[in-house]
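JOB MANIFEST
job_type = single_chain_structure
chain_count = 1
residues = 295
[input]
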Amino acid sequence: MSTPHVSLWHRLRRSRRAGLSAALLALLLLLCLGTLRWSTSAMRAQHLDQTRQAPSLTYPLGTDEMGRSLLWRTLYGGALSLSLGLLSAAMAIVLGTAYGAVAGYVGGRCDAFMMRIVDVLYALPTLLLVMLFTVSVGDALEQAHIFSREIARLVVLTLAIGGVSWLTMARVIRGQVLSLREQAFIEAARALGIPTWRILLRHLLPNLAGPIIVFATLTVPQAILQESFLSFLGVGIQPPQATWGSLAADGVRLMNPIRFDWWLVVFPCGALSLTLLALNFLGDGLRDVFDVRSR
C-alpha cells in the first residue's frame, strides 16, 4: 500500500501542466538569478556608444538608450521582479492564512472583530498605502545605513506589497475554515481532545492547500505588476537598477511618432507575460495535485 507522500509524488509527475510550468519557471529563475553576479557598472560598460540598436547577433535583444544590452537588463530585472514577487507572496500567504484560519475557527465575536479590521483596511486605497509606506519607511531605512540603497528599496517594496496583499487571503481562508470546521472529521478531532493548534495544522491546513496555492500563483504576478506601476511613478526600483516594470516604462517613455524602438517594450513585457502564464498554469496543476478531496 502506497503512502500519501508516494501517491502525491505520482500525481505530481502525471500533471503535465504543473511539470512543464515548473520547469519553465525554474529555467527562468536560474537565468535571471545567474545575472546577479553582474554588477550594474559592468552592464553599463558593455557598450559605450549611447545609441539604441535593434536586435542583432551581437545584441540578441538590442540595446537601450544608454547602449546597454537589453538581454542582460531583462534577465537582471527579472531577478529583482521575481524575488520581490516571491517574497511578497510568501509574506501575504503566512499572514493571510494565519489570520483567516484563527478568525474562522474561533468564530463568534473574535471573528467579527478580526474581520472588521480587514474591512477597514480594505476601504483604504491600497496603492496609496504602498506609496506612503515606501516613501516614509524607505527613506528612514536608507538613512539608517543597515542595507545598501538598492537592497533597502527592495526590502521596503516587499514589506509594503506583502503587507497589503494578505487581506484577500484572510477572507478566502476564513470562508474555507468556516465550512470545514463543521465537518465530521473536525468534530471527531475535538471530541478526542486534540489541541486547537494541532487541529489547525494537521487537519485544516492540508484541506486549504488548493486555495493557498492558487492565491500564491496569483499574488506573485500581482506583486510584480504593483511594483511595475510604482516604478513607473518613480517610487519603486530606481535606476540604475531595473525590473521588468521599469524596463517597460522606459520603453514606453521613449516612444514617439518619429522612432519606435519596439524591442524596448516587447521583450520586457514578453518576459513578464510568459511568467504570468507559467504561474497560472502551475497554480491550476498544483491545485489538482494537492486537492485532498480528489484523492
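[summary]
Confidence is low (pLDDT under 50) at residues 40-45.
The radius of gyration is 22 Å.
exit_status = 0
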